[in-house]
Amino acid sequence: MERSKTYMNSYLAGMLIGLFMIAAYYFSGEGLGASGALKSVVVATVDVVNHDYAKEASFFAARVQNEENSPAKSWLIFEVLGVIAGAIISAAFAGRLKMEIIKGPNITNKKRLIFALIGGLLFGVGSQLGRGCTSGMVMSGMGVLSLSGFIGLMAIFGGGYVLAYFFRKLWI
Amino acid sequence: MGPLFPLGVIGDELNMLIGFLIGIGFGFLLEAAGFTNTRKLAGVFYGYDFVVLKVFFSAAITAAIGLYLMNHYGLIDIDATFYPKTFWIPTLIGGGIMAFGFITGGFCPVTSICAAVTGKIDAMIFVLGAIIGIFGYAFTYESMWEELRNSGAMGRVNIAEWMGISDGLFILILTVVAAIIFFAVSIIQKKVTANSDYQL
Fold it and tell me: Which residues of A touch B106 (CB under 8 A)?
């Protein structure tokens, strides 16, 4: 139990993630993302279920028609498959592979799961509208000094601090 | 000279393999840093755990310094990467929606994936929610989002150039600001955790 509480030093982990981000840009010209891969799952599903619709609707059309010459999208899929493998390896070594619900001390499991669903829904919509999530748009954008990364940083963290007071019962 | 794949130095298959290997490193480090624990993530907003902020800024600054030097010495052409274009209006609004998602759900997409595959049931529900959210967005894209998503287009904008200073000076300022923030949050965290009993 004690062992499962030991985490890597935050600054060391951050610097190493930064080095992997450099590698991602150097080899593939890509940042480190995740929401794009979730989008690919949705696009692929809709395409399989109803290809004709996918060809017509503007959200899907560009992605379905260019599937062959859109390596960036499939690169993200492989990257996220790697993320899954890496997380499992680390958790296995640290003894943290177990089924559980993590939540604030003053809420029920049911409430935690309802808010997790709501949060996921919002993140799904927000990441599509904002053209990327916390890692793909903000962190990777900051790495190449893209203005959009810094706008996203202010919106997500600034917004979080503004909203934190109202949702404090969920966490503390 | 990089980036290797966009410039045609390496092929499609090797590029995918590299993506997979880089992903392993990224996922391993996120888990090792504690990013699968939603309470550690939410702690950044309540002052009892600043792991998100520390990891996030040290990663972004390490990458910014490294890429700046590599660009300077001709090892990589930043202009040939998939550089995120700036659409300030949807990024600001989308960021606000994501902030709402972060404070209610306690994850972002990549951390939820890491947590879901290592057994955190709350994260599995978050991932499900995110996929449903993207479905909902996709089916209402033309009627609700398309115009907004394409508004505020500014093209490829480098923040240093936009502010009228050099990249090097911007990175220096960013590093100094981050160092001050790191120092400040270590004091805040000590005070907050001393006053109450936060069991993570």
Answer: 115-116, 119, 170-171
- What are B88-105's pLDDT values in tens digits? 999 999 999 999 999 999
For residue A1, count other CB atoms closer than 10 A to its CB.
5
Q: Which amino acid is at A20?
A: F
pLDDT in tens, B171-181: 999 999 999 99
Residue of B nearest to A45 (CA): B135
Going B152 to B157 to B158 to B161, the CA torsion angle's sign is negative
Give the phi and the psi of residue A133 in degrees, each rounded to 5. -105, -165
SS3 A15: helix
Tokens of B178: 């981050």
Nearest to B102 by CA among B178, B59, B45, B182: B45
As given in the structure block, the two tokens for residue A130 are 């904002």
Q: Is the minimum CB–CB distance between A64 and chain B shorter than 8 Å?
A: no
A65: closest CA of chain B, how far (Å): 16
Is A61 near chain B, with CB under 8 Å?
Answer: no
Alpha-carbon span A123 to A133, nearest angstrom: 8
Contact B25, A16 (CB under 8 A): yes
DSSP B198: -
Helix axes B109-117, A109-129, angle to 10 degrees: 140
Which regions of chain A are under pLDDT 50?
Answer: 1-4, 68-69
Give the single-character DSSP code of B84.
P
- Name the residue ranges covered by the structural domains of chain B: 1-82+164-200, 84-155
Interchain contact, A83 vs B132, CB within 8 Å: no
Residue A75 Cα to chain centre, angstroms: 15
- Which residue of A lies nearest to B27 if distances are taken between CA atoms? A83
Give the predicted TM-score (pTM) of the model.
Answer: 0.93
> Is the predicted pLDDT of residue B82 greater than 90, yes or no?
no
